[in-house]
Specification:
Distance between the termini: 25 Å
Strand content: 15-25%
Strand order of the largest sheet: 3-2-4-1-6-7-5
Number of strands: 7
Radius of gyration: 15 Å
CATH architecture: 3-Layer(aba) Sandwich
Structural class: alpha/beta
Mean pLDDT: 92
């Protein structure tokens, strides 16, 4: 069960594989120049928010995004293994067909990767671990981790979260699994 604490979430800045619509998974693809700019833009958007801890996936694209943002906050930066993207195995590096990401995400184990159920459990454990740190917490992670959260709670939003655009996620009172998302 996801802890009922509000938090900031940020999908890492763009990589060349994002731009080329290639499946990344746990392949450690670095930010491209646009991704670095997106991270700096996110830092500007977040300046003035009360972030106490930044938690990041260990993958370089998320970690670098978190490090750029932490230039403004100079707070504790915690690397959490469970926040890394789903393992797609042999599908990593291959083209994504339009709107096929959800299908691939839910069928990664067919390609020798992680089952979606195991991934959701791992991702929620990673988010909960992050929320155990002093807050408000910013989590710099991946689109798949956001999808895992979406599958676990009711969130009035469909589709991908944009690279480099921070959002605020907060539980709504009265319903255990109903949350809302606000762009920062």
């Amino acid at each position: 069960m996801l802890r009922r604490e509000p938090f900031y979430f940020l999908r890492h800045g763009q990589t060349d594989w994002n731009a080329e619509r290639l499946c990344q998974g746990q392949t450690d693809v670095p930010l491209n120049l646009n991704g670095i700019k997106q991270a700096h833009d996110a830092k500007t958007r977040l300046t003035g928010t009360p972030i106490a801890t930044i938690c990041s996936s260990p993958l370089g694209r998320a970690r670098q995004t978190a490090e750029i943002i932490n230039e403004a906050f100079k707070c504790r930066l915690v690397i959490i293994d469970n926040l890394q993207e789903i393992y797609f195995a042999e599908a990593e590096g291959k083209p994504l067909v339009s709107h096929a990401y959800d299908v691939l995400l839910r069928s990664a184990e067919i390609h020798g990767g992680e089952s979606f159920e195991a991934f959701v459990e791992r991702a929620i454990a990673g988010i909960n671990q992050a929320l155990g740190h002093p807050g408000p917490v910013l989590i710099a992670s991946h689109g798949g981790v956001f999808r895992a959260v979406q599958s676990h709670i009711r969130l009035d939003r469909e589709g991908d979260i944009t690279n480099g655009v921070p959002v605020w996620l907060e539980p709504l009172s009265g319903e255990d699994l109903h949350w809302r998302m606000i762009a920062v």
